[in-house]
From TrEMBL:
Residues 4-125 form the Response regulatory domain. This is DNA-binding response regulator. SUPFAM superfamilies: CheY-like (SSF52172). Keywords: DNA-binding, Phosphoprotein, Transcription, Transcription regulation. Gene3D superfamilies: 3.40.50.2300. One of its GO terms (biological process) is phosphorelay signal transduction system. It comes from the Bacteria.
C-alpha cells in the first residue's frame, strides 16, 4: 500500500536520495524538511503514514531529530516513526522505543539505507505497526541495561569508589600506593568502559560517580 511520508534530514543530498528511493517504491513524500521544528510543524499540519527522520540536525546539530521524534510519539503514540542515525544515541533511542508500547517504531543505522530494498521494506513494516531495530542498536541498548560496573576490574572499582568520595587522582594514588600515572590510566579506562563520551574530564568524573551511585 502506498504511504504518505514526511522526511527530516539536514543533508540536502541524502534528503533528496531518500525522497527518490521511497518514491521509486510507490510512496508519496508529503514533505521533506531539514530541521526539527520544521518536522514537528509538517507532522502537526498533516499527519503522515510514516515519519523518517535523522537524529542529528538543526537547530543545535545534536540529537534534535530524535528528540522531535520522541515528542511526536508522546503526542501521538500511534504515529509510525523510523529514525536513521550514524551512531546509537542510547538515552533517546531507549525513550523512543518505549513510546507507544514499542509499536510502529524503528531505529536503523544509516549504512542500512545502502541496502535499498531492505530499507524500503523496513519503512513499510514500521508504517504497518512493526518494530524494526538495527542489530547494533539492540546490542548497545542491552549492554546499557546491564550493570555497567560489571565491566570494571577490581582495581578500577576501587579507584571509582574513591572518586565517589571526592578524592583527586593524587590522593587516590597515595591511598592505593600506586603512581598518579597509574591512577590516570585507570580513570581513562573507567570512562571508556562506562561509555562516557569525550568531554571535559571533570564532567566525566561526575557521570562516572553517578553510575557508581546508581549501581
Amino acid at each position: 500500500m502506498p504511504l504518505r511520508i514526511v522526511i527530516a534530514e539536514d543533508s540536502v543530498l541524502l534528503r533528496e536520495g531518500l525522497t527518490s528511493l521511497l518514491e521509486r517504491f510507490g510512496h508519496t513524500v508529503a514533505a521533506a524538511v531539514g530541521d526539527a521544528p520544521a518536522l514537528i510543524a509538517a507532522v502537526t499540519a498533516d499527519r503522515p503514514d510514516l515519519v523518517v527522520t535523522d537524529v542529528r540536525m538543526p537547530p543545535s546539530h545534536t540529537d534534535d531529530g530524535l528528540r522531535a521524534a520522541v515528542t511526536l510519539r508522546a503526542a501521538d503514540p500511534g504515529l509510525p516513526v523510523l529514525v536513521l542515525s550514524q551512531y546509537v544515541e542510547q538515552s533517546y533511542a531507549a525513550k523512543l522505543l518505549d513510546t507507544g508500547g514499542g509499536h510502529a517504531v524503528g531505529y536503523l543505522l544509516k549504512d542500512r539505507v545502502g541496502a535499498v530494498a531492505e530499507f524500503a521494506q523496513a519503512a513499510e513494516r514500521v508504517a504497518a505497526g512493526a518494530t524494526v531495530v538495527d542489530p547494533e542498536v539492540v546490542r548497545q541498548l542491552l549492554r546499557r541495561r546491564q550493570d555497567p560496573l560489571q565491566r570494571l576490574s577490581p582495581r578500577e572499582r576501587e579507584v571509582l569508589e574513591q572518586m565517589a568520595q571526592g578524592q583527586a587522582n593524587a590522593a587516590i594514588a597515595r591511598s592505593l600506593f600506586v603512581t598518579e600515572a597509574a591512577v590516570n590510566k585507570h580513570v581513562s579506562s573507567i570512562f571508556s568502559k562506562l561509555d562516557l563520551p569525550p568531554a571535559g574530564d571533570q564532567h566525566r568524573r561526575v557521570l562516572a560517580v553517578l553510575a557508581f551511585l546508581r549501581a
